[in-house]
Amino acid sequence: MLNDRKRGGQMKLENIIIENYRQFDTAELAFDQGITILAGANNSGKTSLINLIRSVFVDEKNDYSVSDIPAKNMQEWIDWGYPVFADFFKSGKSVDTIDAELVNLIIPEDDTVPSHLMNTTCVKIHVSYDPDIDDIKMFADYIMDLDEEVHDFYFLFDYEVTRSKFLRAITENYDKLKRRFDEIEEDKIKVLSSSDKNLENNIEVKERYLKQLIVSIYVKSMVTFGYFCDKEFKNKCRFDDIKEFRKLFHFCFIKASRPLDDDELDHSHMLSKQMIRMVKLDDGWNELVERLPDELLKPIQEKKIDKTVRDTSLKSLKDTINALEQTNGGKSGELMLDMQVTEDDISELLQRITTATYNVDGYYLGESSQGLGYSNMIYIHLQLKEYEKGVDPLKVNMFFLEEPESHMHPQMQQVFIKYLMDYYHTKLQGLITTHSNEMVRTVGLSHLRVIRHAGNFKSKLYDLSTLLKDLKKSENLSDKELANFFDWFFEIGYSEIVFADKAIFYEGDTERLFIRKAMTLEKYKKLSQQYVAFIQVGGAYAKNYEKLIRLLGIKSLIITDIDYEKEKLTVADIEDSTITNATIKHFYSLNHPTDNALVKNLYAWKNTKENIMDNLIYICFQTDHDGYARTLEEAMLNKYFSMSVTDLYKKSEWVQKRNDSKLDFSIPNKKNDKKISDEDMVSIRDILASTSGNKTDFMYSVIMNGYVENIMPEYIDGGLLWLMQ
Fold first, then answer.
1. Category of 700 on φ-ψ map: left (φ > 0), alpha (ψ -120 to 50) or beta
2. CA distance linking residue 344 with residue 402, whole number of Å
3. What is the Cα–Cα distance from 149 to 140, expressed in whole angstroms?
4. Which of 193, 235, 243, 565 has the fewest CB atoms within 10 Å distance of its CB?
5. CA distance readout (Å), 92 to 88, 101, 106, 107, 208
6. Is residue 446 a contact partner of residue 11, using CB atoms and an 8 Å limit?
7. Considering the domain 1-68+119-159+223-269+361-489, what is its CATH architecture?
8. 370-404: b or e for each residue (b if 16 or more CB lie within 10 Å)?
9. Residue 491: CB partners within 8 Å, gap ≥ 6?
10. How crowded is residue 146: how many other Cβ atoms within 10 Å of its Cβ?
11. d(CA 399, CA 420)
12. Which letter, b or e, does each residue of 192-220 get, where b requires 16 or more Cβ atoms within 10 Å of its Cβ?
C-alpha cells in the first residue's frame, strides 16, 4: 500500500533528552535511522512522553500544569518558598510591596543574585544532517559550531517562569493568600489554648492547600521558550518566536485510541473519512467531486421535484393551516415545505454517504465486515500514507504511532510490525509505542527502547540497543556470543521480560509447573498479584541474562540445580564434590574469584546470603537443608519423606511409600544388570534415575494430590519469599 521511495535529503532526529517531567527525572530517547520501538507496560509513561513531544513540536497552546512537574521538585521548592510567602503575609505588608519584598527574593531583578526557581521540564533536541545530500537552508541561522566536521544542530525547549507574570499572578491572588495565611495564624493561636487534635489537623490541611495554591500560581506564570544551542546546551540563543522553532519539524501523531467503525452501533465511519482525505490528494478524484453536484442537481430541477414537495406538503398541512386561521384572524398565508437544494448541499451529502467497502467475490461488504484489527491496520496505513505525501525534505520529519497492536491478533501484529520495520528501514524515521510481547519479540533488541517503573511515581527509560552494540563491538569472544544469544533469546518469545515487574528463571517444564502452582498458594499471594516473567533456561545459560537483568533493574530469581557429581552419596564426598553448573560457578566467582566452587563452599556462600547480588539477583539451588539434593525432584522427595540422599530404603519400603503417597515415581527392578529384590537397599538417586523419563508425570501427581505446599523444597521457598519482598 505504501510506495517504495528511497530516503534522501532529510534531516535526522538523533535524540531527545527530557528532564523533570512527571515520573521522569531524566529520559534520553535515541532514535534509529528508520523505526524505533518504545515498549513499556500500561501506565509506565509511554503516552506521557508522546504527549510532551506533541506539546513541544506541534501544539500551539501551552497546557503545562502542576501534574507535569515531578512531585519531588515541587516539594523541594515549596519547602523553601512557603516560609518566604508566610513571612511576607504575616508581616502585614501591602500589595504594593510584593515586587520588592517577595518576588525579588525568588526572582531577583539583579542578574548577579541567584534565583530560587523550581526545577521544571526542559527538552533537549539533537538533530544531525548529511552535508552531501541534506539542504540545511532552514537551519543555517542556527549553526553554533563552525567546525566543518561537525554536522549537528542542538535545540532546547524550556518551560520558564517569567518575573512579570509571577508578579501579576501573586498580585491578583493577594487577598486570597492573605486571608488563608491569616486563618492559619488564628488557628495556631487557638491551638495554644486547646488540646483539640482536630484543630491541629485542620491547620495541616489548610497549609497543604495553601502550598498547592502557591505552586499553581508559580506554574501558571510559566511560558515556553525555544533556544538553539551548542553541544553542551550551555551557550544558547532564544528564538524570537516559538513558531520559528516549530516550523523546523514536520511531526505526525497517530493516536492510540481510534474510534473505528467496526460496530453497527457506531456510525462515525472513521476509516471512510480517512480514505476520503487520502483521495482528496488526487486531482482526478477532485475533478469528479466538483462535477457530481451539478450533475445530480440537474434531474432534481428538470423533474420539478421541488414543486411536487410544495404541492404535497400544502395538502398535508391543510387542517393545520385552517386551525391557524381561526386563531390569528386568517393571516396564515400558504404554509408549506420547500426544497432549497444547492451544489454545496449535494457535496456535503456525498461526503456523508461515501463509505469504505470491501469487494469479496463480487459482494460489497461494509467497514464492519472484516473486524476491528483489519480496519485498524488499514486506518494506520492510510494515516502513514497521508503523512508520507507531506514529507518536507527541508525539515526534520518524524511520525509517532501509538500502540498499533490494538485489536490485532498476535500473527497480525507480527506481520504488521515486520512490514513497517522493513519498509521504513532507510526511508523515514518513526517511533512506535507498544505493550505487545509479539511486537517486541519481532523487532528484537537492536531497535528497542524500554520504559519501566523504578519505584513510586518514578519511571526510567532504557536503550537496549546500546547493550547489543557494546557487546558486538567488544573484542571479547564471549561478548560477541552473548550478542548472538540475545538476538535468539527474543526470537523464541521471551520478550515479556521487558514488561515484567520481576522474573523467574527456571530449567525445565517440571519447575515451571511446580512454581506456577506454588504461586497460587496463600503464602506467595503477593507474587501472583505482580507481573512475573517466566524464562526457561538451563544452568549453562542463565548467567547470560546478568547484563540484561542489571540494565533493566529486574528483580530476578534464578532457580537452578547444583549438579554435583552424581555418584557422590556420603556427606563428606558430597561436600568435597565439584559442580558442573556454569551459572552457579559464574556468580560464585564474583565473590570468590580464586576459590574452587566446591559444594561445601557453595553451602557457606548461600548461608551468608552472598548468593544474593545487590538485592537484584538471587541464585537459588539445593543445599544441605534440602537433604543434600542435587536436583529439584530429589529435594521434593527428601522434604516429603523427611530424608536425605544418604538414606537407603528397601525396595519394598519404597513401594509402600509410593502407595501411601500416591506419588508417581518409578522403582527400579534392576541395577547394573542385576535384579533388585524386595529386601535390597535402594537410594533416592536410584529412584530418580528410574523416573528420569517420567518427570512430568511425577510433577502432575504432586499437583493433583495437593502436595505443593508440603513438598516445597527449602531452597525454592527461600527464593520465592525473597522475590516477593
1. alpha
2. 36
3. 15
4. 193
5. 7, 11, 19, 21, 21
6. no
7. 3-Layer(aba) Sandwich (3.40)
8. bebbbbbbbbbbbbbebbbeebeebbbbbbbbbbb
9. 441, 444
10. 6
11. 12
12. eeeeeeeeeebbeeebeebbeebbebbbb
Q: Express each pLDDT in 7-31 by its tens digit.
A: 455 799 999 999 999 999 999 999 9
Grid cell in block for residue 707: 502436595
Q: What are the C-alpha distances in Å from 584 to residues 509, 515, 601, 717?
A: 20, 20, 12, 18
Amino acid at site 180:
R
Residue type, 370: Q
What pLDDT digit, counting tens, does each position of 38-48 carry?
999 988 999 99
What's the CA dihedral at 161, 164, 168, 174 to 10 degrees?
70
Residue 501 DSSP label: S
Number of H helices, E strands in the chain: 29, 23
The DSSP secondary-structure symbol of 472 reads H
Query: Alpha-carbon torsion 32, 37, 39, 44, what sign?
Result: positive
pLDDT digits (tens, 9 = 90+) for 263-299: 443 445 555 565 556 656 666 656 666 666 666 556 6
Beta-carbon neighbour count of residue 447 at 10 Å?
A: 22
In this structure, what C-alpha cell is assigned to residue 512?
Answer: 515451571
Q: Which three cell numbers stand for residue 215?
A: 505552586
Cα 52 to the center of its chain, rounded Å? 15
Q: What is the pLDDT of residues 148-166, one digit of tens each?
A: 889 999 999 999 999 999 9
The whole-angstrom separation of Cα 83 and Cα 722 is 44
3-state SS track over 186-216: HHHHHHHCCCCHHHHHHHHHHHHHHHHHHHH
**Of 140, 18, 17, whose CA–CA distance to 69 is shortest?**
18
Cα–Cα nearest to 376, from 261, 280, 252: 261
Q: What is the DSSP letter of 524?
A: G
* The C-alpha cell that represents 193 in the structure block: 489554648
State how far the Cα of 174 lies from the Cα of 89, in Å rounded to an integer.
9
Residue found by looking up cell 526511508 in the block: 427
Q: DSSP letters of 615-662?
A: TTEEEE---GGGTT-SSHHHHHHHHHHT--TT-EEEHHHHHHHHHHH-
Q: Where are the domains of the chain?
A: 1-68+119-159+223-269+361-489, 71-116+163-220, 275-354, 511-724
Identify the residue with better confidence: 703 or 61.
703
Phi first, then psi: give them for residue 704, nearest 5 degrees. -65, -25
Locus of grid cell 566452587 = 597
Characterize 641-672 residue by residue with b for buried, 16 or more Cβ atoms within 10 angstroms of its Cβ, and e for exposed.
bebbbeeebebeebeebbeebebbbbbbeeee
Strand partners for 460: 452
Residue 266: count of CB within 10 angstroms of its CB: 13
DSSP H or E stretch at residue 396: strand 396-402
Question: Which pLDDT belongs to residue 290?
Answer: 65
- Gap between the Cα atoms of 695 and 155, Å rounded: 62
Please, what's the b/e burial string for 604-639 (b: 16 or more CB within 10 A of its CB; e: otherwise)? ebbeeebbbbeeebbbbbbbbbbbbbbbbbbbbbbb
Q: Tell me the three state secondary structure of residue 272.
A: helix
Grid cell digits, residue 146 = 563552525
Kind and range of the H or E run holding 152: strand 152-161
Using DSSP's 3-state secondary structure scheme, residue 382 falls into: helix
End-to-end CA distance of the chain: 51
